[in-house]
Amino acid sequence: MDANYALFARVVAEGSLSAAARSLGISPAMVSKRLARLEDRLGTQLLHRTTRRIALTEAGAELHREVAEILVRIGDIEARLHKAGRSPAGRLRVTAPTSFGRLHIAPHLPEFLALYPEVQLEIDLSDEYVDLLARQVHVAIRIATAPGGEFIARRLADNRRVLCAAPAYCAAHGAPQSVAELARHRLIAADGQLPWRLAAGSRNAELAGPSCVRTNSSELIRELALGGVGVALRSLWDVGDALADGRLVRILPEWEGSADVGIYAVHPRGRRVPPAAQVFAEFLRDRLARLDAGA
């Protein structure tokens, strides 16, 4: 396949000409020149583009769907051709939530890379939804209910979530004594995190928003909770330290987030998982077993 098809897919995956140029180690001008050459060859415009942003044309979107699938198949073929018993090698593209990646993936990466020195790791930390096929992601770490449909998910660890607030918030607004009373308090959650599904033994409840502050950043919600802005539903891996030292306190401690939510390694259904992705998920599962589930 013409290398310019792979370049086109990389531009779409990175979101801009300049980002694609950096990842490929060439100049933005060269990226633009090669894209123009591909468009001339096909006789149609593929992208509306500047150095900062790109948008697919209708023809470009159609081509990208086909090219992305071909590149995935090529990756699968390359993986199958590795000799039996050979250490995993090659490009491994991973995406994970920002806070979780920083706190509980990044510290283990030196060990992983020492164990598998031939793996070329690319890791993207983002709280935004990532299209795994379009971005050519091999494995996504997601904290959610088990994804179904077009995805296959492997549960790596449980994800206990608790209601919490700063002592200053409780002093100013009082501590709610029931879920119904909690609904009248200031709730804070990142986009997509509400409604909250809660459980207390056999009892279940659902708490709708809105959040008193809108943001796409889960890390910002943690800081707002610490600052006394409102009540948050947070994972213990994220706020365990703040609960232990008293910067946050549990609200309605008998209630927690639904146990259906876990930490998963996800990949598209129908796509062979490269050996590097398999060992990464297994490695991470072993390390996450050490997460403190207390509080």
Q: Please, could you describe this protein's structure?
A:
This protein is an alpha+beta fold and 295 residues long. The protein folds into 3 domains: 1-81, Arc Repressor Mutant, subunit A, CATH 1.10.10; 96-158 and 261-295, 3-Layer(aba) Sandwich (D-Maltodextrin-Binding Protein, domain 2); 161-257, D-Maltodextrin-Binding Protein, domain 2 (3-Layer(aba) Sandwich), CATH 3.40.190. Helices cover 40% and strands 22% of the residues. It contains 11 helices and 13 strands. Strand 1 and strand 2 form a beta hairpin. Helix 1 packs across helix 2 (17-24), helix 1 (3-14) packs across helix 4 (58-81) and helix 2 (17-24) crosses helix 3 (28-42). The relative contact order is 0.15. InterPro entries: LysR-type_TF_proteobact-type, LysR_HTH_N, LysR_subst-bd, WH-like_DNA-bd_sf, WH_DNA-bd_sf. It holds the Pfam family LysR_substrate. This is LysR family transcriptional regulator.
SSE layout and pairings?
Layout: H1 3-14, H2 17-24, H3 28-42, E1 47-49, E2 54-56, H4 58-81, E3 90-96, H5 98-105, H6 109-115, E4 119-125, E5 139-144, E6 151-158, E7 161-165, H7 167-173, H8 179-182, E8 196-200, E9 203-207, H9 218-226, E10 232-235, H10 236-244, E11 249-250, E12 256-257, E13 262-268, H11 275-288
Helix pairs in contact: 1-2, 1-3, 1-4, 2-3
Family: Belongs to the LysR transcriptional regulatory family.
Protein name: LysR family transcriptional regulator
Pfam family, one: HTH_1
